[in-house]
Write a structure and sequence with these properties.
By secondary structure, the protein is an alpha/beta fold. The chain has helices spanning 3-18, 23-30, 34-46, 110-125, 166-174, 183-194, 246-253, 264-273, 275-300, 313-329, 349-359; strands spanning 20-22, 50-56, 64-69, 75-81, 85-92, 97-104, 136-143, 145-148, 151-154, 178-182, 203-208, 212-218, 221-222, 304-308, 338-340. It has a five-stranded mixed β-sheet with strand order 6-5-4-7-10. Strands 13-12-11-14-15 form a five-stranded mixed β-sheet, with helices on both faces.
């Protein structure tokens, strides 16, 4: 991958998070000369990917013209496919969520999931399509899956999908270039690209949903590890029984008139009305959650650990407070990373992140017409 393409990708990624910035700031962030940024940005403007705005003050010298992403350059579709629901997120090229939808059902059966994806395709052409400008650049599907040599290793709930050529089938259903990503990795990329207000270069994104996962970002890049399975902490025997997941919370609350489904609004109201149940659940899962954050903090030494995923916000807020109190009472032997809640609050962090990966891939290695929607413009 040439240095010029890498620099263009860096510029686009920084503008995705910053929204607007002068060339001098981008040069400082990319650690290159202002001349190099000027050359790269000139090409991106010519291709319709960047816009020039008003002049803004800078640290030194005369005011400079602000650069921003062109929201009309195209749009991308992200989907999170789970056994009980499929969530879609449509983003423009500036990373704004134009629309979102959710389909509930029983998607252990691949044919049912594919029928839902075809319904999503119709949605992008009709209801959501009214808000979108430019071409549909591709679709990213976030699945509860791991990777192995030559294929995918799905979570038990979608094992029946194992023998299918999923990328080819999904491309046929959605009518556009499609790729598959682990849902924890996708959520971490969404936070890296469009959230992460503090600009952490190294962080772990604990993906707390029906299961337990983790996306790892090192030096502003998604760390995949061997075959792409870095962060698959849910497979560790030590965290196989009691863990801070939505499934565990729902099971624990079932005897206390909890909502039967996964409606975010119903769970927010329920947890707000039953703080004593939240505290009882934390007493159950807190020790294991703290052990997990201590391990991540010691092994990776990241700037921060995000508590993200579909676990209700009230539960994640309470978990964060519980972990901070435990650290204050028994301080870790090495400085602990910051415990934060993600800035991205989309209906599905994984779907949102999968869409950002269509626009601006996880590494410069992926910056090609076959894997990046923006690269095809």
């Amino acid at each position: 991958m040439s240095e010029k393409i890498t620099l263009k990708l860096q510029i686009l990624r920084y503008l995705l998070r910053l929204r607007t910035a002068p060339r001098s700031q981008l040069a400082e962030l990319c650690q290159v000369s202002a001349a190099a940024v000027s050359t790269a940005s000139r090409d991106l403007i010519a291709r319709g990917l960047l816009l020039e705005g008003e002049k803004i003050p800078v640290k030194r010298g005369a005011p400079q013209i602000a650069l921003s992403l062109n929201p009309k350059a195209g749009h991308a579709l992200g989907l999170h496919v789970a056994t009980h629901r499929i969530t879609a997120s449509l983003l423009n090229a500036a990373g704004d969520e134009l629309d979102t939808m959710e389909i509930t059902g029983h998607f252990r059966d691949l044919d049912a999931a594919r029928a839902a994806l075809r319904h999503v395709r119709e949605w992008t052409l009709t209801d959501a399509g009214r808000h979108a400008k430019g071409p549909l650049l591709g679709a990213g599907l976030a699945l509860p899956t791991r990777f192995r040599s030559g294929g995918l290793d799905h979570a038990p709930e979608i094992e029946s999908w194992a023998r299918a050529d999923l990328p080819a089938l999904f491309e046929k259903d959605l009518g556009c270039h499609t790729f598959i990503e682990n849902d924890g990795n996708a959520a971490a990329m969404g936070e890296l690209c469009c959230g992460n207000a503090a600009g952490h270069a190294d962080f772990a994104y604990l993906y707390l949903t029906e299961g337990l996962g983790c996306g790892i970002v090192l030096n502003n890049q998604l760390h995949r590890g061997r075959l792409g399975n870095a962060g698959e902490i849910g497979t560790l025997p030590a965290f196989s029984d009691v863990r801070p997941t939505f499934r565990d919370l729902a099971k624990f609350c079932a005897a206390h008139n909890a909502p039967s489904g996964r409606c975010a609004g119903e769970w927010a109201q329920y947890l707000t009305s039953h703080p004593e149940i939240v505290q009882a659940w934390l007493a159950r899962v807190g020790p294991g959650a703290r052990a997990l954050t201590l391990i991540l903090g010691t092994v990776l030494a990241p700037d921060a650990i995000f508590l993200g995923g579909d676990l209700p916000l009230k539960a994640r807020e309470a978990l964060r407070a519980h972990l901070l109190a435990a650290d204050a009472q028994d301080p870790p032997r090495i400085p602990a990373p910051r415990l934060e809640l993600p800035m991205i609050t989309a209906r599905s962090a994984a779907a949102f992140g999968a869409a950002t990966m269509v626009l601006y891939p996880s590494t410069a290695r992926d910056w090609s017409p076959d894997t990046s929607g923006i690269a095809r413009i």
